[in-house]
Amino acid sequence: MFWSRNKKADPPAESTEETSVAWLWDNEILIEPQHLQVGHFVARMDRPWRQTPFPLEGAMIQSEDQRSWFIDHCHWLVIDLLRSRNGFRPPRANIPYRRIVRNRTDADNPEAPVNMLRRAELDQHSVPAAIQGHDLLYQRAGALIEAIRKNGRIDAETARLGIRQIAETLEQNIAAMIWLTRIKNVDQYTAEHCVNVAILSMGLAKSLNWGPEEVEQAGLAGLLHDLGKTKLDPAILNKPGRLTPEEQRHVREHARLGYDLLSEDESVHPIVRQAVLEHHERPDGKGYPLGRSRENLMPMAALVSVVDAYDAITSFRPYSAARSHHEALGILWKTRDRQFDSMMVEVLIQFLGWITPGTLVRLTDGDCAVVLKASAEHRLWPVVRRLKADGERYRAEGVIDLADHNRAHPDAVIRVAEVLPDGALDIDLNLVLREAAEASATAGTSSSV
Q: Does 77 map to a domain?
């Protein structure tokens, strides 16, 4: 035999974080192990991959011995027909797979992926790496946009390499990466928005405990989701007032135009293409371009949809002023299960938290500040860097841990009074971020600001 085979353990009463998966994709089938065939690609199962003899997540079944291992050790499998060499479609397992495959984010566990931003620090290692990755991705987004405008074609391979670089170190650099999504330049909206959606999509995918390949696909779908807008009339796209019905139909074509562009590049995974096509579909069936019903919503598209909306709401657009982080989360919450998938909204809120690194706030003592790190014990008492007005601009001053201050001065408590929209104050947040890293290095630590 290829491997020794042990008797299956009893199936767990409830899927654990390690063995659960997010959803079944259109190309995946939940099956009973006895229906597995040589040539099928096993994408997921009811146990962690580290408990298997396979070196990587996902396995192509190449022999009867490998097939027998899964039959002997697993209660259910998910096969991916797109990656399978054998096109046979087995019957779906008679298992309540929504219970099995819907991922538990384990929000109460401080070590869970959904809480990675709460644990994150700005330091001399993560900040330069995040800035380098962000700049590279921004350059590649700009190159993609320029190439489409010049010759109408797209080469997604260079974009994928930038996404992979960020995805591989996302958790270590997440605080700085999220900070960078808060820096908004009105005249560079298209490229910035695509990069922001890519980063936030990877963060949300990671929070859902999706696998490395799916995290990369989420990032690429986020980066490419709006490239179809390069084919639209700029006068209509940037119109400050309400669009006419005909203009609305024109703008809505961007989803299909983006899909058509990606269909010309065979290296783009079908899930990424489909997410670009469907990122404006809605649970209530009123989305476009296909008007999909709730049960047919594609998970990757649902993810990009909620992230796209969040970044758009917090950015200045010709027809709408930038709203604060709090306002954006409130809008998403109120429209969950109608315009946006409710689970995606809930996990995004858990992931980002009440405030994120780089958020501009006004304190109860009247000063403005930028958040460096959320407090683990009190959401209104983060670590902040004060900002002082210097004419019309602001300059960064000293760092204060509001939790430490308030414990030491109970009669002079300072808390966050208001969360401001991104760009509300004239300050170079990129410079403030670099200064935070330099301060960490000067202090001789790799994990504090």
A: yes
